[in-house]
Amino acid sequence: MSRAKSTYHHGDLRAACVSAARELLEEDGGAALSLRAVAKRAGVSATAPYRHFADRDALVSAVAAEGYRELAEHLARAHPSPETPDDLAEIAIAYVHFALEHPALFRAMFAEPCDPAHEERAAATAAIRAYVHGLVRAVFPEAEPEALSTAVWSLVHGLAFLHLDGKLDATDPEEIAGRIRSTVRAMLTAGAAVERG
Amino acid sequence: MSRAKSTYHHGDLRAACVSAARELLEEDGGAALSLRAVAKRAGVSATAPYRHFADRDALVSAVAAEGYRELAEHLARAHPSPETPDDLAEIAIAYVHFALEHPALFRAMFAEPCDPAHEERAAATAAIRAYVHGLVRAVFPEAEPEALSTAVWSLVHGLAFLHLDGKLDATDPEEIAGRIRSTVRAMLTAGAAVERG
DNA sequence: ATCTAATGTGAGCACTGCATACATGATAGC
DNA sequence: GCTATCATGTATGCAGTGCTCACATTAGAT
After folding, report:
1. What is the value of pTM for the model shown?
2. What does the pLDDT average to over A72-96?
3. Is there a smaller number of Cβ atoms within 10 Å at the N or the C end of chain B?
4. CB-nearest partner of B179 from A112, A150, A152
């Protein structure tokens, strides 16, 4: 774990940049993230980060990739082995919670016209996709997993963004949790009603 | 309809700015939208827009508000009087289609930490909310409309963003349409299956 | 010990949002 | 019709941005 010695070379500037960027994102929001600020926080000249990141986008992508991993952990922690729709709702709550706790990071992860060729990023999102797949298989063993995974991820992801953007009230965490639970329930009972009708 | 005469005063600079901004958004993407470019396209000095917009954000919000209205029209045009889940799927397809046709606009509408106090914007999103409400009432007359509206909007919105961001393949429109149809179907049959089990 | 390539520095360019001081002219009151 | 007013436009300038390029330093291979 290379400490920042008072030497010419930093040691691990790349990692330092990512975590500095991460911090600035949390503190000041996405638009305020400048390479100069990142460099300053890393204790290095303004142009040094360019030795490790092709451009600003590459740095943001690296931070986003870290975000995907954290999101995955956060979800896993919400429920170790989900099996029922209620368990699924708890995971949905965790997803939205993550978005609201780290709004700028979440936006960096999803709301930027990012380079789809970014490897680290692609791998991290593939991991999330796989997680959702497993989740769906466990909760709805009879269903067609591909389509239902898309549905579940979309539903949860949409909930996150609508809360983030103020389209759904996001002041009280308990209220949010309640809304998500009833949203998931409503979606499922609606389907049942259609099948009956 | 004030034409841009060669006079000192423009006539309707506010509208000209909004449409110039709209054009630049479509052409070059969101990040490239600068007030200077807008002013130039409107044939006016760089700081003139500030007479009509407090800051860049206010201009973007105005464009976003226009976007909400267009989205609403686009959805209404997709199906005049939806009554079945299949009709709903067609509207979902239209929603995603709009996002993919106008990515930068859609991001401006949803993916910016916007000022929630912006009146025009709030009104426009309230209109969309009402539209979804009516849609849900028509398609699922037995359901609790509040929760199910949230569910439907979230599902569709999530689909739009996951396609926009490359998390779901968005190359072939027909394939997208097919995926959305089976996604909606999967979501509903999953609920039915749970009720049975 | 020396050479080389990786890594960091500094100056500088074109651009940005925005503030400030000033120019113009549509229009309301006489 | 004349003139004062004030919304609307212009010109200039500042601080901050991403990024490039020439140069400095030093870790590690030979």
Report:
1. 0.93
2. 96
3. N
4. A150
